[in-house]
Design a protein that fits this description.
324 residues; alpha+beta; Rieske Iron-sulfur Protein; Naphthalene 1,2-dioxygenase Alpha Subunit, Chain A, domain 1; 2 domains; four-stranded antiparallel β-sheet; binds FE2/S2 (inorganic) cluster; binds fe (ii) ion
C-alpha cells in the first residue's frame, strides 16, 4: 500500500497504558513510536520505559524479562538494567563491561504517571521535555466516578486527528450537525483551547437523542489540547462530563486513541443519564470520524474555501511538535 503520511512522528508526552494495568513487578512489551519497547514497574512502584532489545545479545526484555528490585533482568542471560538503561548486574561475570556500566546502553524515556495513566516523553533527538502533562483534578477524585475507557487503533497520524476540531465543515457531513459549530480557537505555546458552541440534538428523559431533527439545543464544549498527545474536554449542560483523549503514535502511519471519561458521583439520576448519553455521543462521534481517517491521505496543500475553519492556523500550531 502506498504510504499516505510522510510526516515524522511528533515529539511530546504520549499515554502508554492505564496505571491500573501495571502492577508492581509487572513487565509489558509495547509497540509505540515505531519501536519495540518494554514497560515495567519496579518494586518501589516506579514505572520505567526502555527500548526492548538487550545490548548483550539482543533478547527482547518484554518477553520473559523480570523485575528485580529497581531493575529489569533479561530473560536470556540475566543481565540487569536500571530505568536509565545502565547495566547494574551481570550475574555470572566478575566485572560488568565498562561500556555497559558507565553509560546507558538501552534508550530510556522520561515517564510520568498522571490522570490514572502512564505517559512517556518521546523525542526523536532525545531532547528533554519542554512542557508537562496537564493534571486533571476530576480524574481520581473521590467526588468523580472511576474512569470509563474506550480505545481504537487507527491508520492515521496524530496531526490529522487533531485537525478535526479546526475542520468545522465536517461536522455537518460526518456528524450530521445542522449547522457549522461556532467557536473560538486560541493558541498559546503548546496549548490550544477551543470553545465551541455546538447545536446538537436534544436528549430526552430516557437519555435518547432526538432523531426527528427538530429538537435542538446549544452546548458548550471547552476543549484544551496540551501538546500533540493530550486533549481535555469539559462538557457542561445541566450536568457535567470530563473527557480526556490521548493519542499515541504506534508508528508513522498509525495511532492508538483512547477516551477516558469521568462524571460527578453526586449527579441526579436524570443528569447521570444525560451525562452517559453525552459520553455515548462523543464515542459515537469519533466512530463516525474513524472510517474517514482510516482511508484518507494527507493533503499538504489543500484547496480551501471561505467556509472552512482555521485549518492553516492549526497546522502551523502543530508544526512546533516536529523536530526539524
Ligand atoms: S541477551 Fe540479554 S542478557 Fe544476554
Ligand atoms: Fe469529527
Amino acid at each position: 500500500m502506498a504510504v499516505r503520511y510522510e510526516q515524522a512522528i511528533p515529539f511530546g508526552w504520549f499515554a502508554l497504558a492505564y496505571s491500573s494495568e501495571l502492577s508492581i513487578g509487572e513487565v509489558k512489551s509495547l509497540q509505540y513510536f515505531d519501536r519495540e519497547l518494554v514497560l515495567f514497574r519496579t518494586e518501589s512502584g516506579e514505572a520505567q520505559l526502555l527500548d526492548a532489545f538487550c545490548p548483550h545479545l539482543g533478547a527482547h526484555l518484554g518477553h520473559g524479562g523480570t523485575v528485580k528490585g529497581e531493575h529489569i533482568a533479561c530473560p536470556f542471560h540475566g543481565w540487569q538494567f536500571d530505568g536509565d538503561g545502565v547495566c547494574r548486574e551481570v550475574p555470572y561475570a566478575t566485572a560488568i563491561p565498562s561500556r555497559a556500566r558507565q553509560q546507558s546502553t538501552i534508550e530510556s524515556y522520561p515517564v510520568v504517571e498522571r490522570n490514572a495513566m502512564i505517559w512517556a516523553w518521546y523525542h526523536p533527538q532525545k531532547k528533554p521535555p519542554n512542557f508537562e502533562v496537564d493534571a486533571i483534578a476530576e480524574i481520581g477524585s473521590r467526588e468523580w466516578t472511576d474512569i470509563d475507557v474506550y480505545e481504537w487503533k487507527i491508520n492515521t497520524i496524530v496531526q490529522e486527528t487533531g485537525e478535526n476540531g479546526a475542520d468545522v465543515a465536517h461536522f455537518m457531513f460526518v456528524h450530521s450537525s445542522p449547522e457549522m459549530p461556532k467557536g473560538e480557537v486560541t493558541m498559546n505555546g503548546v496549548k490550544r483551547t477551543t470553545l465551541l458552541m455546538n447545536k446538537v440534538p436534544k436528549i430526552n428523559e430516557q437519555g435518547e437523542t432526538d432523531a426527528t431533527g427538530e429538537d435542538w439545543e446549544f452546548i458548550e464544549v471547552n476543549s484544551v489540547n496540551v501538546g500533540p498527545g493530550q486533549t481535555i474536554q469539559r462538557i457542561t449542560r445541566a450536568f457535567e462530563v470530563v473527557m480526556m483523549g490521548t493519542i499515541t503514535p504506534i508508528d508513522d502511519q498509525s495511532v492508538h486513541l483512547r477516551f477516558v471519561f469521568t462524571m460527578p458521583r453526586s449527579q441526579t439520576d436524570m443528569n447521570q443519564v444525560f451525562a452517559e448519553a453525552t459520553r455515548d455521543n462523543i464515542v459515537g462521534g469519533v466512530e463516525q470520524d474513524i472510517p474517514i481517517w482510516n482511508n484518507k491521505r494527507y493533503v499538504d496543500k489543500p484547496i480551501l474555501c471561505d467556509g472552512d475553519g482555521p485549518i492553516a492556523k492549526y497546522r502551523k500550531w502543530f508544526s512546533q511538535f516536529y523536530a526539524d
